[in-house]
Amino acid sequence: MPKKYVLPSFLSGMVPQEIYERWLRRKAQAHVRRDRRRGNLEAIGEMYRDAIHSAVIESAGLDAYTGEELDWTLISQYDNDESRENGRHYKRGFALLPTVDHVGDGTGPANFKICGWRTNDAKSDLDLPEFLSVCESVLKHHGYAVRNAG
């Protein structure tokens, strides 16, 4: 029987199928739990797995916001104990760990982008225009010319 969530070709030789599927299940489960707490009673695991898998394929392995190449070998490698012990030095090594970012507030249909942990952490709960505004403010404050892409 063919796999429903076939390993995207750009991950071939980098991530085993079973690691990818485990990551996909875990990410979908975490987002379903969070969205149900936010009142989205329509959040269903299979729908979220489908949406996240589609976002992974659409990403082509790149951060949706920065265009950086993500380090897919890092999925399922993060160690909470080591993180507590080594703090930001440990976390810095996971900047390009692929993460799942909601497009929207999680109360509507499943819609995701894939981005690096550093990007997702910086973006937090901001929508794209708000995030770009923050980025623009940082650049302006440090004397970089900002051109409006909109």
Explain what you see.
- This protein is mainly α.
- 47% of the residues lie in helices and 7% in strands.
- The protein has five helices and two strands; from the N terminus they run H-H-H-E-E-H-H.
- It has helices at residues 17-37, 45-59, 80-92, 117-123, 128-141, and strands spanning 98-102, 112-116.
- The chain has a two-stranded antiparallel ribbon with strand order 1-2.
- Helix 1 packs across helix 2 (45-59).
- The mean pLDDT is 93.
Number of domains: 1
pLDDT averaged over residues = 93
Which structural class best describes the helix and strand composition?
A: mainly alpha
Q: How many β strands by DSSP?
A: 2
Number of helices: 5
Point out poorly predicted stretches. Answer: none
How do you describe this structure in short?
By secondary structure, the chain is mostly helical. The protein is built from five helices and two strands; from the N terminus they run αααββαα. The protein has a two-stranded antiparallel sheet.
Question: How does the SSE layout of this entry go?
Answer:
Elements: H1 17-37, H2 45-59, H3 80-92, E1 98-102, E2 112-116, H4 117-123, H5 128-141
Antiparallel strand pairs: 1-2
Helix pairs in contact: 1-2
Question: What structural keywords apply?
Answer:
single chain, two-stranded antiparallel sheet, 150 residues, mainly alpha, 5 helices
